[in-house]
Amino acid sequence: MAAPKPIGMKQLFSEAGQSQQIHQLKVQIEELETELTQLRSGMLNVEEKAALEEQIKGLTDQLAYSGGVHEIEIQRIKPDPEQPRQTFPLYQLQERAESLRRHGQKTPIVLIPQPQSEYILFDGELRWRAAQLIGWNTLKAVLLPKQQILAAEQVFLGQLVTSIHSQKLHDLDLATALVKLIVYKYPDLKQFQADIPKTLNTAITQLRREQKHLELNQIRLASEQEQQEWLETAGLRKIEELEVITVLLGLQLNPISINNNIFPLMSLASDLKQVIRTEGLESSKARELNKLSAEQLNVDEVKALAIRESITQKVIQSKLSLGDVKRLVNDTLAQYCPKKATQASKIIKLSKTIQDFKVQTADREGLMSLQQILTDKLAEIQQALKQ
């Protein structure tokens, strides 16, 4: 199967010249590597990747030749508070810092010049943060020429696309960034942005009724015109549903994956969100730990927070697997609320049964029946999760 055509950064940076081309090629190289939470699939072969890397080097050299590579004082560089990526776990910073210490800075960061010789980061915040850990005073940088400075929406969109394809974003960052981008694109949704995840879920439910949901994985790779034509016949009745789906498809993301795996993270407890930011806690583990709520534990909010923080620290310090986290959460629920723990145990057992089921050994009629049952049950689960 041919690799899907990547999003053209030219669509995003109509006036960005050389810098736009560099980002376009970065996306092409990184786009089909291991997909963020399996939202997408595919792989560039070695020859294609090497060829694109060579083109990037040539374009970077051109940009450096025309504008120069500058040694910029770190204290003059500020992170972009509006950029999509907000999660920088300490272990990642330490790894990058050690790489910089041993091998030096291989590629320049990209900066947007500001008044009074200040700069805003466009790309390279991890290197900027890591350099400070090892006491560096300057970093090599290339500058986006003033005539190529983009509007805030274009900058944000460029950062988001690049981050998605290079796996720089934690799922929580992606969820927050997607909501922000949707509002950028459709300002009429600003006052309803807290309801955007619910709007997406409603849209997915409608697409299931219309038997159109199975087409999403393919249509996300289609051209913008083909996507619009598909949406016109998809059966979505509300304009806000069309707007949300349009943005996700425009990023070549599967709305079902976003609905199931990404947007639910926005409802995590605030303490878990903070642990994600500082420790890089995986989203799947965070969702399990989020079950340790006051309601589920049958305790007050203060007690629930103390329990959750204690269990979370154990998960991080012991580097527990997802399976271990599920068992630990279930045991904790059993300690405080036995009835709910019993139900959770049933879910774990059912999940394992489904995972262990050998599809190859079943007949076609049985598989079709099972598919319908699972489809109906999945719709019920999605509805329950949104309540």
Topology (SSEs and partners):
Blueprint: H1 9-12, H2 17-30, H3 46-67, E1 70-73, E2 77-78, H4 90-103, E3 109-114, E4 118-123, H5 125-133, E5 138-143, H6 152-165, H7 171-185, H8 196-209, H9 216-219, H10 224-232, H11 239-250, H12 255-262, H13 270-279, H14 283-289, H15 294-297, H16 301-318, H17 322-336, H18 338-356, H19 364-385
Parallel strand pairs: 2-4, 3-5
Antiparallel strand pairs: 1-5, 3-4
Helix pairs in contact: 2-3, 2-6, 4-5, 6-7, 7-11, 8-11, 10-11, 13-16, 14-17, 17-18
What attributes does this structure have?
ParB/Sulfiredoxin_sf, globular, 387 residues, 4 domains, 19 helices, ParB/RepB/Spo0J family partition protein, alpha/beta, Conserved hypothetical protein from pyrococcus furiosus pfu- 392566-001, ParB domain, five-stranded mixed beta sheet, disordered N terminus, DNA binding
Describe the structure.
- It holds the Pfam family ParB_N.
- There is one protein chain.
- The protein is α/β, with parallel strands linked by helices.
- Helix content is about 60%, strand content about 5%.
- It is globular and about 65 Å long.
- The two termini are about 40 Å apart.
- The protein contains 19 helices and five strands.
- It folds into four domains: about 10-155, Conserved hypothetical protein from pyrococcus furiosus pfu- 392566-001, ParB domain (Alpha-Beta Complex); about 170-265, no CATH class; about 270-350, no CATH class; about 355-385.
